[in-house]
Structures are given as C-alpha cells and as structure tokens.
C-alpha cells in the first residue's frame, strides 16, 4: 500500500469522525457547529501562513470569497441534514457533488463530459431515489438540504479548479475558514456554551477537520488523483460503522442498494472520466 493511499484512508477516517461529532452537537445552532469546525483549523493554519509568509489576501479575491461563502453554505446545509437523518445516508447523498461539479465545469469551463459519465450520473441519481423511497428516516427537507449542499459542493469544485494554479492551497483554505467564522458570528445570539461531554465534540470537530485536511492534502501531493479518488469513498464506510456503534443506525436492504448505486455511479464516473469515450 502506497503512502498516498495510507494518507487518504486516515484523512477519510478523520472526516467521518468529524461528521459524527457534528451530529453529536445536534442541540447547537448549525452555524455554531460551523464555527467550532472552522476555529479549530484556522488557529493553526493562520499563524503557519504568517510564519512562512504565505499570501493571506491572494490575487483573486472575488473567486476566493465566492469559494469561501459557497463552501460555508454547503457545510451549513449538510450539518443541518446530518443532525436530522442517519450519517451514512447524509454523506451518500452529498456525494452527488461531483455530478453537479462536472455539469457546472461543462457549462462554465467548457470541460468535456462523455456519455459514460452522464450515464454514471443517472445511476447515482437513481440511487438517491431508491434511498429516499425506501428509507423513511429521510424527510424531504433533509433531502433538499443535501441536494443543495451537493450542488454547492459542485460549485466549490469548479472554483477550486479555477484557483488551483493561481493561489496557494492554504490561501484558499484560509478564505474558507475566515468566511465560516464571519458568517457564524452573525448568529451568535443563538449560541450557548457547551457543557460536560459536549466539550469533547466541540474540541474534536475542529481537530479532526484539521487532521483530515492535512492528510488529504499530503495524499494528493504524494499520489496521482486517479489512484486516490476511489478511496475517498471510504469515508462513507467509516461513517456507517460510526453511525452503527454510536447512534444505533442500521440499514435495510433497499436503502443499502440505493447507497451502492450512488457509490457505483460515482466510481464509474471516475473510470469514465479518464477514458477517451466519444
């Protein structure tokens, strides 16, 4: 097993634990949870950027701000939904983000999308329909929130593609964290102080988010994207395990089939993207 694969397996585990902690904080306002997530990362990367003289402002302020704000809105929608429905289901539906990203890149960046990719998108969407149709725990509000979150994730992908060769990756992350903090503080009147064991999740959500971000970055620095991308879906496996042991979440056969269709569609998209299919 290569170092890059080990890194991404550790990163996806960290993100799965982070999402479980977000679910554990369901008694808090979603934007307070976003604040907990952001502050735990920002207090480490901002001093690091100052020490290494990494550009804070960046050269493409408007796209950087757009990436930050869109990312925050996507995270808020996801955290609201994850507090309402099973963890694995929420993460599965949010995995539709690459579909929206490909469609937006096709329209805005003129990137090619072959027929096999469009077919894989249809398979993934059919998985959402099966999952919603057979899992009564997924209400329509949560479904809409997750679809909006996935659409916004697609927008983030396009902006990241645009910014990738123009800005330092920490500059991009810093904008996301600062936007998270600023927008979260607009809702400070709805906040409350954590008590007791809640502090574990409050401190853990930022720490695991930072660890996931670091190891995901290191993974993609040490291994090709085409090799690593399928392992990103291990986050769902971890989430379902965590959901089972900590929240008592189980799945019947048909909802599981829906999740398999979603993941199968996304993996087929990864395969088809690298093929010259006319």
Mind explaining what this structure looks like?
With 278 residues, the chain is an all-alpha fold. The chain has one domain. It is built from twelve helices and no strands. Helix 1 runs parallel beside helix 11, helix 2 packs antiparallel against helix 8 (169-185) and helix 3 crosses helix 8 (169-185). It is globular, with a radius of gyration of 18 Å.
Main β-sheet: number of strands, strand sense, barrel status? Answer: none
User: First CA to last CA: what distance?
Assistant: 34 Å
- Topology as H/E string? HHHHHHHHHHHH
C-alpha Rg, in Å?
A: 18 Å
Q: Provide the helix percentage.
A: over 70%
Discrete helix count? 12
Globally, the shape reads globular
Class by SSE composition: mainly alpha
Give the total of beta strands.
0
Poorly predicted residue ranges: none
Produce a short descriptive summary.
By secondary structure, the protein is mostly helical.
Key terms for this structure?
single chain; 278 residues; mainly alpha; 12 helices; 76% helix
Task: Chart the SSEs and their pairings.
Layout: H1 3-24, H2 30-51, H3 61-82, H4 87-94, H5 97-108, H6 115-134, H7 140-163, H8 169-185, H9 198-222, H10 225-228, H11 234-247, H12 253-273
Helix pairs in contact: 1-9, 1-11, 2-3, 2-8, 2-9, 3-7, 3-8, 4-11, 5-7, 6-12
